[in-house]
Amino acid sequence: MTALSPLSVTLLVAVTVGLAAAILAWRERPEPGATWLAVLLAGQVWWATFLVFELEAATLPAKALWYDVQWLGVVVIPVGWLFFALAYTGYDRYVTPFSVAVVSIVPAATVAVAAAGDPGNLLAVDRVVRETAVGTFLDVVPGPLYYVIAGYTYLLGAVGSIPLIQLVRDDARPFRGQSAALLVGTAAPWGGSVAYLSGAIPIPGLDPTPLVFVISGVGYLLALSRFRLLTLAPAPRRRARQLVFEQLHDPVFVVGTEGLLVDLNESSAETFGVDRREAIGQSASAVVPKYDAVSGLDAEGDKPRAVPIVGRDGRRPYEATVRDVVDDHGRTTARVITYHDVGAYLGQQQRLNVLNRVFRHDVRTETNLIQGYAEQLRSDPTDERALSVIEKSAGRMLELSERTRTAGELFDPTEESESAPLTDVVDEAVAEARAVAPDARIEVGRVAAVPVPAVLEVVLGNLCTNAVGHNDADAPWMRIDAAVADGWVEVTVADDGPGIDPAEYDVLDRGTETPLRHGSGIGLWIVKWGVDHLGGRISFDEREPTGTIVTVCVPVDRSETPGADPDGEPPNLPLDDSATADESASLGPPPNAGR
User: Fold this and answer.
1) Is 424 helix (H, G, I), strand (E, B) or coil?
2) Is the pTM of this model over 0.85?
3) Roughly how many angstroms between the first and final C-alpha of the chain, as a whole number?
4) DSSP 385-401
5) Whether residue 325 is found in the same domain as residue 197
6) Which of 56, 71, 408, 551 could be a cystine partner for 114, CB 3.0 to 4.6 Å?
7) Does some domain include residue 594?
8) What is the pLDDT of residues 339-364, one digit of tens each?
């Protein structure tokens, strides 16, 4: 038996190492890039294996045959490398059957030419057998298609290396090691090919590319074993970051340095009714809500600003924060604007302050009153006035307790929001008013039959009962009307009562209470909280000759009315675009609601 040449021995070592790496890669399927890495390594093994057949063949035709067979492995390697790099680094959206077919056109044409026996000498102009001390191989003069496929191979290799080079500077040590080992594994064959084409090899005609597959295989084995290639890939991290951006509850806009919208997440599109496809590329001032108000924020230290914005959930206060996107050279490439819905937070703070005042001041006042007149009853059990005062005070405490419970249940986050027909909501509010004042003259105008949030029932109930309950007339008058326009419900409650103390308006307008400046009850606050919770607006006007008119504007329940369009402004209620963080707690003129 003839001993193998040194070249064949070296190639068999490369085949063994490459085959081991290919098996390891194949076993890691379906990890990102595992299949394509196995394809790449299979191409190297194919090339090196049939090069051994070529070296050991005795005749020129036999060597030429095995030379042509090698082309299948030659063209598979760059294709496998490109799609492995894309899938491994998280750019798998580019790895599609169509893209694979397009990239494979040139390699497939090369294999077809080789399979046809190279007609026209496109791959090799001339072929001769060259005997050397290290082995007998086929010395070819490259044809035009040879240089085309070589250039195409370098192009695919360069494109695939770009995302891996980016990982060399990654903060995660395993990814740095993986990318370095992979780049070494692919750079070695490139170097051999360049040396062959440039004539830098001491042995003329010898293509060392398959020989350095030993280095390539070792690099891939090192990446697979030492740096956990495929089992710890960066692809999920890229996907996870994209998922966080898309699924983030807060609306986020990315604006370029030229003031054009670069990107926005799903929450932005849903909250503000923005078409993502049409919005990207447009001026930020035309798409980003209140852009002129928030774009001046200093990303380094300015305090976030709360601005009132009308979105799909009505009019709510959003706190805007701005962060600069800076590249590796310290240059700002974009700005990220995030809107945080602070309506729930501000409402919770208000409720805590008001309820604290109720228990600290109102309850204690009534308790002291009851205690004082109870002492008087002890000394004179027949004192009817003391008994009457105690009964009225106890009634006020019971009413306050019921209103406090209502305030707590109204915004319970564990309760799912419900909807009800507007006609039923108005009827319920009117029934509550009649229960408070049976002699009241109550008129009901035309009411549209549309679904509205059930919270509106509490709001209107308080408005109607207070309209007739705090009226000194023998037969108080009240009228309620409800209309729908552009996805908004506008309810008007008019009465002929004495009106509300301006001090009550002042407290609501500021949005906070102080020991010296606070409301006289909790009903007015419940109305305000309910309207704010629904993302609506309330306003009041004086009525001639006496009385007040309260207007409540809230969005239609969109879960029951898909065709509603609440993205516009509430009708007949102009919005104040200059609201600041201090004003955002009230977001508009004070209502004429519960006393």
Assistant:
1) helix
2) no
3) 110
4) HHHHHHHHHHHHHHHHH
5) no
6) 71
7) no
8) 887 766 666 666 666 666 666 667 77
